[in-house]
């Protein structure tokens, strides 16, 4: 079972790898398109002309040309489907991160994008927002925790599960 800090760590890792995820999805989409085009071209291959005269009788353990072509097409289709599933999984991560970031306030968005996507330091970000490095780091950490809750739900934030009973 994942602990609270695990979800925050996953969120941080996703933020750090966001640009890589985007490039990977674009690359995988192009590869899938190429594979599908190759499959379409392979469909145009025809069966060889059958020879009935002087052919040995009985079967053999080897595949015929047509069977090999069909087997190769099946493998290629399976490869395309696996690639689509992998690409879609990465796209779901991107979508989750995008939704979580868009729900943050503008300042939190700027801090996280500056630190995780643009590689700026907390000192630089604090300076840009007219605050200290400590403030920028603290605000960024809180924003990541908020994102973990938005992405993973209550299981990511144990304080959301605790109940406080007030006496009246």
Topology:
Layout: H1 4-16, H2 18-42, H3 65-103, H4 106-117, H5 122-128, H6 133-152
Helix pairs in contact: 1-2, 1-6, 2-3, 3-6, 4-6, 5-6
Could you give a short account of the major beta sheet? none
Q: Report the order of strands and helices.
A: HHHHHH
Estimate nothing, just give the exact number of structural domains: 1
Which whole number gives the mean pLDDT? Answer: 83
Count every helix, treating DSSP H or I runs of 4 or more residues as helices.
6
What's the total count of β strands? 0
Low confidence ranges: none
Assembly category: single chain
Provide a quick synopsis of the model.
Helix content is 69%, strand content 0%. The chain has 168 residues and is mostly helical. The longest helix has 39 residues, at 65-103.
Fold and architecture overview:
The protein is mostly helical. The chain has one domain. It is built from 6 helices and no strands. It has helices spanning 4-16, 18-42, 65-103, 106-117, 122-128, 133-152. α3 packs across α6. The longest helix has 39 residues, at 65-103. The two termini are 37 Å apart. The model has no long low-confidence stretch (mean pLDDT 83).
């Amino acid at each position: 079972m994942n602990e609270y800090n695990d979800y925050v760590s996953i969120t941080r890792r996703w933020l750090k790898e966001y640009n890589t995820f985007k490039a990977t999805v674009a690359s995988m989409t192009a590869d899938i398109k190429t594979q599908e085009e190759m499959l379409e071209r392979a469909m145009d291959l025809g069966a060889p002309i059958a020879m009935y005269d002087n052919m040995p009788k009985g079967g053999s353990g080897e595949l015929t040309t047509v069977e090999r072509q069909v087997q190769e097409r099946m493998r290629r289709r399976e490869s395309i489907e696996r690639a689509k599933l992998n690409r879609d999984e990465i796209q779901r991560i991107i979508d989750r991160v995008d939704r979580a970031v868009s729900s943050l306030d503008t300042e939190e968005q700027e801090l996280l994008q500056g630190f995780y996507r643009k590689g700026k330091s907390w000192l630089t970000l604090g300076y840009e927002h007219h605050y200290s490095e400590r403030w920028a780091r603290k605000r960024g950490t809180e924003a990541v925790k908020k994102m973990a809750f938005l992405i993973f739900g209550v299981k990511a934030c144990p304080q959301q599960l605790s109940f406080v009973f007030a006496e009246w």
